[in-house]
Amino acid sequence: MGGMSTEREVSLKSGAAVLGALRERGWNAHGVDVGPDLPQQLIALGADVAWIALHGQFGEDGCVQGLLEVMRIPYTGSGVRGSAVAMDKITTKRLLADAGIPMPADSVWRAGEPIPEDLPMPVVAKFPEGGSTLGLEIVRDPEDLERALVDLSALGGEVLLEQFVAGDEITVAVLEGRALPVVSIVPDSGFFDFEAKYTKGRTRYIVPAPIDPLVAEAAQRYAVTAYERLDLGGVARADFIVDADGVPWFLEINTIPGMTATSLSPMAAGAVGIDFGALVEEILCAARLRIERRDHREKS
After folding, report:
1. Of 40, 137, 259, 274, which cross-links 14 as Cys (Cβ 3.0–4.6 Å)?
2. Where are the domains of the chain?
């Protein structure tokens, strides 16, 4: 938990919640604030399994997963490849292009290229590897586009420009390949930004979402398809915008969704009778089982 990304504070909250739940269920769990000395910390603890509660760079992008693979320590969530792919919104969209999932039209702008002149407004500008709505801006005026591109490209060079889709926000958590109930997101500001996401009372969440059952089923199907196509594991959460015609447009999928008091995956699990402690434990046990199966295949 913790780590070195811009989402460190969110990760610390997720980690503290997971740590408390594991200890309440009798696990000998220890919190590890991830830094350059992570291998030494894991060796000193004699870690049997790692519950990854990191968000963003070095935690959600396959880096920590690769280290744990080398150290032969089982870990929760997606593997190296799935983590790396899903972290990059551009790569994710390209790999899902033929999966039958509705996605906003997009283009990619790279630092040094001419500023696009004919983009229909508004447009959503994203840092491809940003999370928790960090590195995202809705550009409504062409005069603001150059500033947004310069600001976002400073984070990594490329900027994903997406067609703006007006509608209602929903999210679908997928737990070990099965879709949980759809959650409707209703921020009081009209935009589910960082503050709305992590401040109690700033956003209403409704589960199951009060939407057409056929729309909910479609969103769940798309979420599971993305989960399987990207070879994900544990719990992941796909975000959508439902337009006026009832089409759920896929925005992104998060391989390590938040596990805080205001987080959506635990809320969706709770709607089907899985409390927070049981959810945390199920994710942990699934990680151990995956490694046991892999080791068995390697020996056979």
Report:
1. 259
2. 106-163, 166-277
Residue 129: per-residue pLDDT: 83
For 252, the token pair is 């992104």
Nearest to 183 by CA among 262, 101, 247: 262
Residue 198 has pLDDT above 50, yes or no: no
What one-letter code names the amino acid at 251?
L
Who contacts 227 (Cβ-Cβ below 8 Å, separation ≥6)?
A: 174, 177, 236, 238, 253
Please say if the pLDDT value at position 190 is more than 70: no
Mean pLDDT of 168-192: 88
Can 239 be counted among the known catalytic residues? yes
Query: What is the full DSSP assignment across 142-200?
Result: GGGHHHHHHHHHTTTSEEEEEE---SEEEEEEEETTEEPPPEEEEETTSS--HHHHHST
Q: Could you confirm whether 198 is annotated as catalytic?
A: yes
Question: Does 28 participate in catalysis according to the annotation?
Answer: no
Q: Pick the catalytic residue: 252, 263, 265, 281?
A: 252
- Token pair 């500023």 in the structure block, residue: 115
For 117-140, letters b (16+ CB in 10 Å) and e give eebeeebbbbbbbbbbbbbbbebe
Catalytic residue among 3, 60, 78, 198: 198
Cα-flanking dihedrals φ and ψ of residue 124, to 5°? Answer: -100, 120
Tell me whether domains 106-163 and 166-277 share a fold: no
Angle at 279 between CA 46 and CA 283, to 5 degrees: 45
Question: What's the whole-number mean pLDDT along residues 235-245?
Answer: 97
Domain 166-277's class? Answer: alpha beta
Supply the CATH classification number for the domain 106-163. Answer: 3.30.1490.20
* From 2, 3, 7, 14, the catalytic residue: 7
* Lowest-pLDDT range of 7-16, 122-131, 174-183: 122-131
